[in-house]
Amino acid sequence: MTLPLDVNNFPWLYECKNDKYKSIDVGKWMLFYDKSLMNEAWVIAKRLYREDKLHGVTSMKCSTAFENSRASMLDEGVIILYCNNSSNEEMIMNIGKNIIEMFNYKEKQYIYYKTDLQTREGTVATGCKKNHTYKLCNKLNKGKFLFKLQESNPILQIERTYPTKKLEKTYINRYDEYVFQKLNEMNGDAELQSDYKKWKNGINYKTNRKIKINGKIHRELEKKFIIHGNSLSGSWGGAIMFDNLNHIDKNEYLQETKKLNNEVDRENSIINEYNIIIDSVIEKIKKLEKWDDFIVFEGKQYGIPCIFDNIHRENDCFGDMVFTCKKIEVWSNDRPFCICNDVETTYSIYKCSKCNYENKIMESRTGGGNSYVSNVELCLY
User: Fold this and answer.
1) Is 337 among the domain residues?
2) Which of 42, 186, 248, 353 could pair with 319 in a Cys bridge, judged by C-beta atoms 3.0 to 4.6 Å apart?
């Protein structure tokens, strides 16, 4: 996904559908953000638009890092949401209210709507004094949206780890087309159907002798009537008695599977967009210059880690972390009747070239023998 702050050679990124809306009395609502927030805001805008939650919005565009001479403020970006029928005030205002709600937009006290005609007449930056047709009071206007580089807040602790990405969801384990194909083959096999009736009534279909139901021979003969999933295809890979599937309507079941998979795909799309935001947050954290600088994200303050790029960043030390030695720590099991194995852990030791701050990084951990001595630390130079 192309993000607006990564683009500096053209002014806009666009988003539209293939619905082929006719342009009738076109205008647009405008959402202004601090420029540092544009990547995250655009990801949210695209998700809402693709999920058809921006009712009445026909297309969108987003300002980039390109220096636009028509922009009234250089430290802000804007998302433009296009609408038809600008003269229908009631409809346009309802669209605006929905936009505020869907975006959870808190940046400005008002949001503004202007027609394309007003755009062609000019902006504040080009000398036009009035450049909107409607304005809507924003009751959510209480503070900044998403996250932003801020001055240090002594009340909140600065996290020295990166925010965590979300894991993608997997498809529900369900029978697939292959399983139902095997079911049809087994239902159409007259010999198998005859053997199944015998087996179900406790008769060995190979010898026609009576056998104990659920006994060893009975369980062994059962294998003939089991359908095994095609795990190589990445679908259901279990095993089930064929007759247990005969009550299922294949077409209805597979349609339900498709819907469930589509829902997983939709949720994963949201997760992927969230993870894109996380990547952007992490990149901003990595670019922090001072130890007390931080990024606010989801109510937490994130600062540069203590060690970054092998440099000691704590308290703006900026000393090089130099490898000094490897250490082996051994925990020996000396408790009687305890079956726990001894544990041997190897660490690499680094020290700061300026302040002698020591950082211990675990390299490996293995089980040891009974000959190891408890609580010993060895240094290998």
Assistant:
1) yes
2) 353
**Phi, then psi, of 252 in degrees rounded to 5:** -65, -40
CA-based Rg of the chain, rounded to a whole angstrom?
Answer: 33
Q: Give the residue numbers spanning the domain of 367.
A: 306-380
Same domain? For 125 and 37 the reply is yes
Specify the number of domains making up the chain. 3
pLDDT tens-place string over residues 273-308? 889 999 999 999 999 999 999 988 888 899 999 999
Whole-angstrom distance, CA of residue 102 vs CA of residue 51: 11
Contacts of 325 by beta carbon, 8 Å cutoff, 6+ apart = 349, 379, 380, 381
Q: Is the dihedral of CA 203, 205, 208, 211 positive or negative?
A: negative
At 59 the three-state DSSP class reads strand
Q: Is pLDDT above 80 for 38?
A: yes
- Is residue 274 domain-resident? no
Asked if residue 184 belongs to a domain, the reply is yes
Quick one: pLDDT at residue 343?
82
pTM of this structure: 0.56
Distance, in Å, from the CA atom of 189 to the CA atom of 204, rounded to the nearest integer, reads: 18
Q: Are residues 26 and 83 in the same domain?
A: yes
* Contacts of residue 376, Cβ cutoff 8 Å, sequence gap at least 6: 329, 330
d(CA 138, CA 144): 13
Q: Residue 232, exposed/middle/buried by CB under 10 A (0-12, 13-18, 19+)?
A: exposed
Give 72's DSSP letter.
S
Which pLDDT band, with edges at 50, 70 and 90, does 379 fall under? Answer: very low
For residue 81 the two structure tokens come to 């949401």
Whether the pLDDT of residue 337 is over 60: the answer is no
